[in-house]
Design goal:
This protein is 35% helix and 24% strand. The chain is of the alpha/beta class. It has an 8-stranded mixed beta sheet with strand order 15-16-17-13-18-19-21-20, with helices on both faces. Strand 16, helix 16 and strand 17 form a beta-alpha-beta unit. Keywords: ATP-binding, Nucleotide-binding, Transport. It comes from Mediterraneibacter gnavus (strain CC55_001C). This is ABC transporter domain-containing protein.
Length: 570
């Protein structure tokens, strides 16, 4: 049965711009349809027009638009789609009461059941909480529960996992797939990530500049693309998944020794206690090297970056850097003054540091714009006139103006589409080849980290649980958490995606309070021993590899011969 039939759908904004033009497709009952394309391709606009939630001044026309059954939508940013002033339970029950005939008690029972179905532990307690009290993954699960509240025949999921870390992303996608299988609900998944679409969908539409340029099965799009744009998209995705040969020098640029940060949490009735955002850790970054840093949200990655840049002081330990450190922030839009011209944004660091005359500053800005391949940009523009990729290039140029030895990239490319992401990674690599610049590259995207870094560290609840050569860690993870992270990666190949096992669907709690004296990962670890719940593991080093896990302690592996070569114990 066809749930949705669309022919020549055109969306026109005032000023004659057509973000969607002559879009035609259909959705069968129970089908998983993917819509791929770069940012600005018109994917979201087309879906919003079908939901009827575009502004009144937008003109929508179509030759044929047939819809059968009910539909619901899951938006990209759950934080923006949930009311921050209304408890989760009330938002769910309001939706149920607005669309179904039932009593308030029945609506509350239905809401609690829905939260349980989407994998939220202790749903009764969660219903009493506000959205800001939930993690990103839990907020997205609540958004899914609201979409399911009226038993829709069709769900439109618009970039539902873009801002989520890799394990939560896998759990959300597996949850959507489980819902589709059990309820025979059709899902239209909008994403710029071909790995996400490969893991979910059997049929794909590829959009470019408001038009559908190709349609086919996931296998056809991946193995035998026809349209030049689809080929480019597929090639860029493959390139992102490749691991180029990487070399490093022996000179150390950054060295941290026991660097840590704790915060005091005050209690209204009880004693104040200290929470370790970053447990004491040590690592090095070499000249011309990229050190990747991965881990779930809340693992301490950004706190570490803020200590290295002097934004917050460390509570213990120290670090030394042979040169200046600069940082590219996660939200470039928020790091720029929207009223400043590009010229003023770029000159500002030089003015603050009193570097050169006006003419010399203009020359330096022009050099940096050339380095990031934006020499033709009109510097009188504001950042509002730029695309996301262009803003990132301006952020790179601004960071390089003062000749840093180390550049920290904090989730800088996480929201970019695959084409922009590939171009920015190539730009960073080219700059590194020319200048021997070092990078600390923080990301929850494991594919990107594998693509760009020589060495990497893995963080979990403030602790660096594993570090070593990137290629070796991906080939053979030693820490159970690293293994869990890599298992959650989405393969680009649709055949591999089809064989991938489903992850546990229950949301994971923050266990930091449960394991003050033990390993923070112990409650989630299938290899946990009695000692793991009583004390924190030390750091065990074997050549380039360093791991925090009792599985590698001498007490566990018994007496080792002098020529013993340690391998993964999991």
């Amino acid at each position: 049965m066809k749930l949705l039939e669309v022919e020549n759908l055109t969306v026109q904004y005032p000023g004659s711009t057509n973000p969607a033009c002559k879009v035609s497709f259909q959705v069968e009952s129970g089908e998983l349809l993917g819509i791929a394309g770069a940012s600005g391709a018109g994917k979201s606009t087309a879906m919003l027009s079908l939901m009827g939630i575009l502004p009144e001044q937008v003109q929508i026309t179509s030759e044929k638009l047939k819809q059968h059954g009910t539909k619901a939508m899951i938006f990209q940013d759950a934080s923006a789609s949930l009311n921050p002033l209304v408890r989760v339970g009330k938002q769910l029950t309001e939706t149920i009461l607005a669309h179904q005939r039932c009593t308030g008690k029945e609506a509350r029972e239905r809401a609690e059941t829905l939260l349980d179905e989407v994998g939220i532990q202790d749903p009764g307690q969660r219903m009493k909480q506000y959205p800001f009290e939930l993690s990103g993954g839990m907020k997205q699960r609540v958004a899914i529960a609201i979409a399911l509240a009226c038993n829709p025949d069709l769900i439109i999921a618009d970039e539902p996992t873009t801002a989520l870390d890799v394990t939560v992303q896998r759990q959300i996608l597996d949850l959507l797939k489980k819902i589709a299988e059990e309820t025979h609900t059709a899902i239209v998944l909008v994403s710029h990530d071909l790995g996400v679409i490969a893991s979910m969908c059997s049929r794909v539409l590829v959009m470019k500049e408001g038009r559908i340029v190709e349609e086919g099965s996931m296998e056809q799009i991946f193995y035998e693309p026809v349209h030049p744009y689809t080929k480019k998209l597929s090639d860029m995705a493959r390139k992102l998944y490749q691991v180029p040969e990487k070399k490093r020098t022996g000179e150390v640029i950054l060295r941290t020794q026991g660097l840590g940060r704790s915060f005091v949490k005050n209690s209204l009735f009880g004693k104040s206690r200290s929470l370790e955002a970053v447990e004491p850790l040590s690592f090095e970054i070499h000249k011309g090297e990229t050190f990747g840093l991965v881990g779930e949200s809340g693992s301490g990655k950004t706190t570490l970056a803020r200590m290295l840049t002097g934004i917050i002081p460390p509570s213990c330990g120290s670090f030394s850097c042979e040169g200046k450190i600069q940082m590219i922030f996660q939200e470039t839009s928020a790091s720029f003054d929207p009223e400043f011209s590009l010229e003023r944004i770029l000159e500002e660091p030089l003015v603050i540091q009193k570097k050169g005359s006006k003419k010399e500053r203009e020359k330096r800005v022009a050099e940096m714009l050339g380095l990031v391949q934006m020499e033709k940009i009109d510097v009188r523009k504001t950042t509002a006139a730029l695309s996301g990729g262009q803003r990132q290039r301006i952020a790179v140029a601004r960071a390089l103006l003062l000749n840093p030895e180390l550049l920290i990239c904090d989730e800088s490319f996480s929201s970019q589409d695959i084409l922009t992401q590939s171009q920015l990674l190539e730009l960073l690599e080219e700059i590194q080849r020319k200048t021997q610049l070092s990078y600390l590259f923080i990301s929850h995207d494991l594919q990107v980290v594998r693509r760009i870094s020589q060495r990497m560290g893995v963080m979990y609840l403030g602790s660096m649980v594993e570090q070593g050569l990137t290629a070796e860690i991906y080939e053979e993870p030693w820490h159970p958490y690293t293994k869990e992270l890599l298992r959650a990666m989405l393969p680009l190949d649709p055949k591999k995606a089809a064989r991938q096992k489903r992850l546990i669907l229950k949301e994971t709690r923050n266990h930091s309070q449960d394991t003050e004296n033990g390993c923070p990962y112990a409650p989630r670890c299938r290899y946990a021993m009695e000692c793991c719940h009583k004390e924190k593991p030390g750091s065990y080093r074997f050549g380039e590899r360093e791991v925090r896990c009792f599985l590698y302690s001498e007490a566990h592996t018994k007496k080792r011969a002098k020529d013993y070569h340690m391998t993964s114990q999991i």
